[in-house]
Amino acid sequence: MAANVSVSKGRSEGCGPTIWLAGRPEELQEWMPLGIAGIVTNTVVLNQYAKPYGSVLDLIKKYLDITDKPVVVEIDGHSVEELLKVGKVFTNLSDQIILKIPCSVNGLKAFSILKGEGIETFCTTVFSLTQAAAIAQAGVDHILPFCDPVRAVGGDPTQLIRECVQMFSGWTQRPYIMAALVRSVETAHAAFRDGADELVTMWTVYRDMMDHPLTEEWNKIFIDEWVDMHKNGLLEGVPVTPY
User: Which of 44, 45, 63, 210 has CA 20 to 30 A from 228's CA?
Assistant: First the structure.
């Protein structure tokens, strides 16, 4: 599947973890060409973002319109049968669709069935190592330890990422570990440091990942020198915009 290929290629070439984004289609469009692996949704944002489009299906179609990369759709239901039927509606829309299902016994059963059908899956709402072990054995492809909700109750937001990295280190075909509900640059830094294969965050956090006071300071130094060269005619023949 596309996402697995992307992560595997990134790991083998040593180019670091993949970054996935969440947000409204119109907010994500400009960021998708910048090396973003794909779009990830959850039912909270689907409920918010679908209203202007009239339905969740129309919202997902809009995501598909703005990118050829994977679109992860979170589904839910009260039974394994419901999860499978709902999932089929979305996977029938496009080969780009990947299913995300909350961590539960029903989800465990669904992951096993979907694995047999060759359908790529994400497991969300993962808060313990025992949950991660169980869903991995059931065949899930991506495990999503929640980060900042753990911080909110006084815990270490990336401890489970470290534990998963250690637990799966001997597996030849292990699930990918995606840091999820990352609400700050600080948490993103910790997730990368602790070995997450993937990270999903809002586009605003992704934008802010580029900020650093020293970067700002030195960028100003360099642009001032650039402007000075331009004023002194040292950039003649270079297509410089007047400052």
Answer: 210
